[in-house]
Design a protein that fits this description.
Length: 180
């Protein structure tokens, strides 16, 4: 299981079957987005070979941040519901006639309301940034797909350069097999 130490395991339940996916992260805390999203024309084959892995990682990040936003929204809805009942009860006990507006205004003035709302706003901003990255990554994927149809098999061996592309180190190995 050492290969999983830089990854998280996602469990997918499909009826009576359970799938476990080991999902590795980018391994670096700083990712140069412009470099990642550009098409490496000088080493197009390596770019095409490594890009599906990167696109999958971006999709996984998007799923995680979207889930986080959904969880914050759920927690906020529950908070609002609980606060609504408490404020309404307090107003009734104080012999005041609670209206929908007065209850909502009382909830909105709570410090916890602002804190939770700001958490959602920050998480949504992050989700929007990742969503934009995902759309750009899908755009690159479509362009690479078009280009891949124009490359001949002989180009593979000739075009691969040794370097780091999309966070993956590409190395060439000589064919030591004897051809008949």
């Amino acid at each position: 299981m050492d290969e999983l130490k830089d990854s998280s395991v996602t469990v997918i339940e499909m009826g009576d079957k359970i799938l476990r996916f080991a999902i590795k992260d980018f391994g670096e805390s700083i990712i140069e987005i412009e470099d990642l999203l550009q098409i490496h024309t000088h080493n197009i084959v390596a770019d095409m070979v490594t890009w599906p892995v990167i696109l999958n990682r971006i999709a996984n990040i998007k799923a995680i941040i979207d889930q986080h936003v959904d969880q914050l929204n759920l927690e906020f809805s529950i908070f609002e519901s609980v606060q609504y009942e408490q404020v309404k009860k307090q107003m009734l006990e104080a012999d005041s006639k609670p209206t929908e507006t007065s209850i909502k205004m009382s909830i909105t003035r709570l410090p916890e309301y602002k804190d939770k709302k700001l958490q959602i706003i920050d998480a949504q901003k992050q989700a929007d940034i990742v969503g934009g990255l995902y759309l750009a990554a899908k755009s690159k994927d479509k362009k690479l797909e078009v280009i891949s149809g124009k490359i001949k098999p002989d180009d593979f061996a000739n075009e691969i350069l040794e370097e780091k592309i999309n966070g993956v180190i590409i190395t060439k190995h000589k064919n030591n097999f004897v051809e008949n």
